[in-house]
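User: Predict the structure for this protein chain, please.
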Amino acid sequence: MTKPELSAEDREKELTARLQAMEQQLERLSTRLSEGDASGAGSASPATVRDYPPEDIADVSEEVINWASRTALMPRLATLCFLLVVALILRTVADSGIVNKLVGSGLGMSYAAFLMMAGWYSYSRQSLLAPVFAASGAILMSTIVVETHTHFQSLPLVPAYLTLVATGIAMALISRKFDAFTPISVGTISMCFAGAAIDYPNPYFPYLSLVLFAANVLAYFAAQMKRCGWLRWSVVFVSMFMLQLWGLRIGHALRRSEIPPPELAYSLFLPVLAIFACAYFVFALLGVVMRKSERITRFDAALPTVNSLWAFSTAFYVISSGAGDTSLLGAIGVLTSAVLLAISFWLAKRSGEGARGTGVYVFACGVLLAMALPAVVGKLVFSLPIISLLAVLMAVKSRSWGSGSVRLTSYLLHIYSGAALVFVLKGNAPGVLGAANIIPAGLLALTMLYQYKWCRLWPPPTGYSFFDSFDSNDRSASLLLLTGLISGFFMMRCSIYQILLMISGTVSPDVFRCAQSVLINIVAVVLILLAYLRQDRQLRNVAILVTIVAGFKVFAYDLLGTHGLPLVFSVFSFGVAVAVESVALGKWPKKSEDKVDREIRQENV
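Assistant: Here is the predicted structure, written as structure tokens:
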């Protein structure tokens, strides 16, 4: 939107005023510089009120006034007040009974339509008041539609929704015609929230979903005009919330073994959910592909993952509530994750070095795969090695793609796999310690330790904010070593239980508990020896951490909860581990302070 053209006389006055202001500022700056030079090496005195002449305060006020003049704040505010007065007069006429509610609503909607047309005309005339007319008309139309339908019951449901959609489309046309952001943003957000407010919390969801889908489409086109993450997040949040409410109400009825009422339209829920999920994936992909700048918006980066979490969890809840076959849903989720992975490969090939946007879809693929695979294979523990193998593949590809985000995603997938394994195999129940869990835990340990070794050979690519800013030495790869050791511990834990069960037919709690302590102490000895032989400080630090964990378990659990020969082996093994570690640390090469300082400076660089 351009300002109205000034006359030659006005331009001359404005230029003269600007030159005078610049001369005054230059004089004050020269005075301050000369005073600073005169002070020389003297100590700087604390700032006082006299350090800031009254002219500066006057300049600030002038800047505020100039800003208000440039934005036409006062005329716009006055216009808004007058428009509001007319709307209040019409509302008073309707409330007083002079006209019936239906006629009053018609007058209000006609007034709102007039304001939108006035906004169109004002934009064509390049008036500074055009945004006020357009925004006021859209907000007033949405408010009248909600009130007329909800409180007066004089506007049917379908015309109400159609009026909201027409309002949003009209505002979008104004924005497209005059390249203005205000009409489409106000029209979209008004349509979205007004549609959600109609008959809440019991709307007719199929009709509401049409309004919300239109709002999402308009929000996408609004983002092409101007970066407006707040608008897109608002529309997506309202859409997901209302569809989630739809699914919760259907699931609640199914869990009570009831047939969902017709107004819930149970048969339409999953198709509508699939349409929204596909649309969000398309919007995010277009946001990555069509973005001209190198930086991807936070909305486009987060939408694939948020969409995967929301759509799959909602569908899984509804299907499981009705005792449906979740394996089919899991298969669809796995296929969708494969599509996301294929998109990431396509983006890497398209974007070249750095693979812009690839990490977004790799992470979304991993998240969706983590939710869908257990529904296919039947148990969470059997799905974890597949996710870990995917992480190794992505780590290797991140080197050829030059993508630090893909490498970081592989770390996160490994950490999730390790945490999920701990969650599944915690406790001493026979089912938890079954022989079937040994292989998945062992595969996890192997893949994580392999990637840790690989990461030590290949440093992360440069140019990625996380590794350049926070972890230039790739210390976060130590988490792979820790999760690999934890996975190996749970593998050996299940193996010890099965061996004891085969030997004696029963498992003594004291023997089983102390055997785990002996295992941890052996791992600590192996780690410190490897660290000493390789002079690996990260491996040394992990060995110290494992020793601390072993000491806590021996003295806080074994010593207070067990007795007999198992306790003797537990304490003895810990003593051996501490002794070996003491010798290794005592012989660890000492570095001079100058060398240490040089290393610290190099790491900071």
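Residues 90 and 159 are 22 Å apart (CA to CA).
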